[in-house]
């Protein structure tokens, strides 16, 4: 049986990251990214849930996640899966899609998390290799050209208008969720209880939980952990030692951060730190 492995690359100051990985045992905890994420499955199949549905990406298929799209992931069978994925900041995507005058179009929306398009998969693989496998030989100009061309191609092939909106949730429910979310942002390093959320949001503990899940696709505790993981990444990128970053981001210690970082991102904080491009 092959071992799980992953390779990671990230740009120093630009919101571009790339991962090449093979997973048989690893299971992604439900999480999201503050970027667009475009992946291509090279072998095997990855199963995941996203936007209320179950999906499978088999070899040659493309995955497209919008910013803050909650999802999980695991191998669909015992043989595992190998895939490549790139994470691109929304501003970078907007830049890549701007017209010749620099005027930006609305950011694309990808309604289908899985797209069967072999040509698109090939273009994404070529862009990914330029970032990771050929990082030492591909010039910055060539990477930017591939980025612009690949993003435009993905947007043309897979972006779509939003599907018909579901029946609107009661305005009170959305407001309850928003107030609870604000508390989690404002008290990132605290340990608020369900009662704290209920008081801040103006609902019962269970009503707040239901409203939050319906509005943001994550439980309040998962959302809180995600905020802390993103804060830890920011600190590590600034050169803060991992142990210090863990405590500063609200984790008990470095091992606590490492455990959740790996479950959500597929690699350790140390490996992510070392992946920065020179």
TrEMBL record:
Gene3D superfamilies in UniProt: Homeodomain-like
Domain HTH araC/xylS-type intervals: 178-275
PROSITE patterns named among the record's database cross-references: HTH_ARAC_FAMILY_1, HTH_ARAC_FAMILY_2
Superkingdom: Bacteria
InterPro entries: AraC-bd, AraC_XylS_family_regulators, Homeodomain-like_sf, HTH-like, HTH_AraC, HTH_AraC-typ_CS
DNA-binding in keyword set: yes
UniProt keyword list: Activator, DNA-binding, Transcription, Transcription regulation
Signal peptide region: none
PANTHER family membership: HTH-TYPE TRANSCRIPTIONAL ACTIVATOR RHAS-RELATED, TRANSCRIPTIONAL REGULATORY PROTEIN
The protein's name: AraC family transcriptional regulator
Record organism: Actinomadura luzonensis
């Amino acid at each position: 049986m092959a071992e799980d492995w992953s390779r990671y690359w990230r740009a120093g100051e630009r919101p571009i990251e790339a991962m090449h990985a093979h997973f048989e045992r690893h299971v992604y905890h439900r999480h999201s990214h503050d970027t667009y994420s475009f992946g291509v499955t090279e072998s095997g199949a990855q199963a995941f849930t996203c936007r209320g549905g179950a999906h499978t990406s088999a070899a040659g298929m493309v995955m497209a996640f919008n910013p803050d799209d909650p999802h999980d992931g695991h191998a669909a069978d015992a043989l595992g899966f190998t895939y490549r994925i790139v994470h691109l900041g929304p501003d970078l995507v907007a830049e890549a899609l701007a017209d010749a005058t620099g005027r930006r179009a609305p950011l694309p929306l990808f309604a289908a998390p899985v797209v069967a398009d072999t040509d698109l998969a090939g273009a994404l693989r070529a862009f990914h290799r330029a970032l990771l496998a050929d990082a030492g030989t591909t010039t910055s100009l060539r990477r930017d050209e591939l980025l612009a061309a690949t993003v435009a191609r993905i947007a043309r092939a897979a972006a779509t208008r939003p599907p018909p909106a579901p029946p609107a949730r009661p305005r009170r429910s959305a407001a309850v969720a928003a107030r609870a979310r604000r508390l989690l942002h404002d008290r990132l390093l605290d340990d608020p209880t369900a009662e704290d959320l209920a008081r801040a949001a103006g609902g019962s503990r269970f009503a707040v939980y239901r409203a939050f899940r319906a509005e943001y696709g994550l439980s309040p505790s998962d959302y809180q952990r995600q905020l802390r993981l993103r804060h830890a990444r920011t600190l590590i990128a600034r050169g803060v030692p991992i142990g210090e970053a863990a405590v500063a981001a609200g984790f008990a210690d470095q091992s606590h951060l490492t455990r959740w970082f790996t479950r959500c991102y597929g690699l350790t904080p140390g490996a992510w730190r070392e992946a920065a491009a020179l």
